[in-house]
Design a protein that fits this description.
The protein is mainly alpha-helical. A 3-stranded mixed sheet has the order 1-4-5. Helix 2 runs antiparallel to helix 3, helix 4 packs across helix 9 and helix 9 packs across helix 10. The longest helix has 26 residues. The radius of gyration is 21 Å and the shape is globular.
Length: 352
């Protein structure tokens, strides 16, 4: 597809790059209020049985995820019209989700600007090695990458490392305002957690907050992972890279059941979000439905998304993700150009 057609596609979603104050406030109420009520219910259920507390905490973790989507929209300046309002709410929801607002905002902006660019990996994204990079790596480098890509490490240890430790430190070269926001977020988190421990006791706090924290982090990392790590996603080097193709072909449409779609703040329409980050989460589905080319983006479901667990390396020759076990197979077989899957490419890639 020509540059002109790519820009025309981006222009089609421009009408949805607007916020609606009523919908934003409504989403605040139906996200944060249920989170607080569920957290309180989980605490009071401790006197009955932890078998009752745990499922309540699990549901509460879904509302932490929904709150994170509000935080995410604030980072893109799409939740409120006012930048100041976005910054204030972003900092507050950052405390609730254990994420420093300005640090994440800046790194996530880089992610959007470099997503699927093989020459600009490393900031705000999942570590991806190409087949050739993996073959050229040292034994220790390969081992470390294998450990990193292990599902238990990525989705089990990952939430603990990222949200409890990594986000407490500033990135190298961060400006003073960003550094101060990171420290402020940490201080507010400590103050909130200390107050809760003083109010209800540290044992009760841990019993409720631990599953809420872990599962919200697990679901958040899973969503981010699965919507870029699918077999025929898009990766190119800088000279061939296209922002529009990276958005529409390098991000999937995660078709979730309506309840999960609502809980996850429509982030399953990830291809729309990457094409136009200024579209608020509550307009993503509408933009998708009104734009036929976007409906041809790669669609994954709960069942098919599980296949992403075996994807480990990007093969530049076949233009697809492969597992570690496929490396030897690739080295024995001659490369054959696979047919282009137009239905999975949103019509942006021409047939040969």
């Amino acid at each position: 597809m020509s540059r002109t057609k790519e820009m025309a596609l981006k222009k089609e979603v421009t009408p949805y790059e607007k916020n609606n104050l009523r919908l934003s406030i409504q989403q605040l109420v139906n996200s944060i209020l249920p989170l607080l009520l569920l957290w309180a219910a989980a605490y009071y259920s401790l006197s009955v049985s932890y078998w009752l507390t745990f499922p309540i905490a699990l549901v509460a973790s879904g509302f932490v995820l929904r709150t994170f989507i509000i935080f995410h929209d604030c980072c893109h300046g799409s939740f409120f019209k006012s930048k100041r309002a976005n910054d204030i709410l972003g900092t507050i929801t950052g405390v609730l989700t254990l994420t420093p607002y300005l640090q994440w905002k800046n790194e996530h902006s880089i992610h959007h600007a470099t997503s699927s660019n093989l020459d600009k990996r490393g900031v705000g994204d999942i570590w991806v090695m190409t087949v050739e990079e993996y073959k050229a790596a040292s034994p220790w480098g390969r081992l470390f990458y294998r450990i990193y890509r292990n599902p238990f490490v990525m989705f089990g240890i990952g939430p603990i490392y990222v949200f409890l430790f990594a986000y407490r430190f500033n990135r190298k070269g961060a400006r003073r305002k960003e550094r101060m926001n990171t420290h402020l977020t940490t201080v507010l988190i400590v103050a909130l957690y200390a107050s809760m421990c003083w109010l209800i006791g540290w044992q009760a706090f841990v019993l409720v907050q631990a599953p809420v924290f872990f599962f919200s982090g697990f679901f958040g990392i899973w969503l981010f992972y699965v919507q870029h790590q699918f077999e025929d996603t898009y990766f190119e080097h800088e000279d061939e890279w296209s922002y529009v193709k990276a958005a529409v072909e390098g991000s999937s449409y995660y078709k979730l059941p309506k309840l999960l779609q609502w809980i996850s703040g429509n982030i399953g329409f990830h291809h729309v979000h990457h094409l136009s980050p200024r579209v608020p989460n509550y307009y993503l589905e509408e933009a998708h439905n009104a734009t036929p080319p976007l409906q041809k983006a790669t669609t994954i479901t709960l069942r098919s998304s599980l296949a992403a667990l075996r994807f480990r390396l990007w093969d530049e020759e076949s233009k697809r993700f492969i597992s570690f076990g496929e490396i030897k197979t690739l080295s024995r077989k001659p490369y054959v150009q696979p047919p282009i899957r137009v239905n999975n490419q949103a019509g942006l890639t021409e047939k040969p």
